[in-house]
Amino acid sequence: MNRRLRAINIILTILIFGGFVALAIFVYKDSYLRVWESLKDLWNSLKFFGKEVFMLDIEAQPTVIDYSKVLHWKNILPESFDNFGIKAKAYFSLFATGENFNLYMSNIATGLGNFAKSLVIIIPVGLILWLIIKAMYSKCNTKHNRDTVPLKVYKKLMGITYHPI
Fold first, then answer.
1. Residue 44 in contact with residue 64, Cβ under 8 Å?
2. Whole-number pLDDT of residue 41
3. 3, 60, 122, 130: least surrounded by Cβ within 10 Å?
4. Is 162 helix (H, G, I), strand (E, B) or coil?
5. What is the pLDDT of residues 85-142, one digit of tens each?
6. Would you say 78 and 84 are in contact if contact means Cβ atoms under 8 Å apart?
7. What is the pLDDT of residue 118?
8. pTM of the model
9. Virtual CA dihedral for 41, 47, 50, 51, nearest 10 degrees?
10. Other C-beta atoms lying within 10 Å of the C-beta of residue 48
């Protein structure tokens, strides 16, 4: 590997690593704060274990059962089965409405319309490519001991990509 290609690889590696570090700092910082919070919870649990099992005279309370102070999630699970039943009834009453069905069918119609628009382009292009390939391979090679165009392209691609490796 020559020096120039090696330098490009090193620079590219540094840029990718820097991008991941920037994502960790600016976008996903809450996950690292949550890891720190979980380590503090583990330490509090170990202190509580020591207090309970070895009868140590320390103040310790397990914080694992508390909600996260980092994520600020609202509890989405119902507290009792009665609340679950109420929320399930509300969900299914909203799920099975005519307006919801009409919106679903509208989205399906939009998707089918986009699919049909793409088929209008794909089918003629595919047909033309199929005819061109069929015409190329239907001709016999009368140039013996000479490479055909597809073989020249293959050899060139292999000389650039596969053979150096």
1. yes
2. 93
3. 3
4. coil
5. 998 998 888 888 889 899 999 999 999 999 999 999 999 999 999 999 898 888 776 7
6. yes
7. 95
8. 0.39
9. -110
10. 18
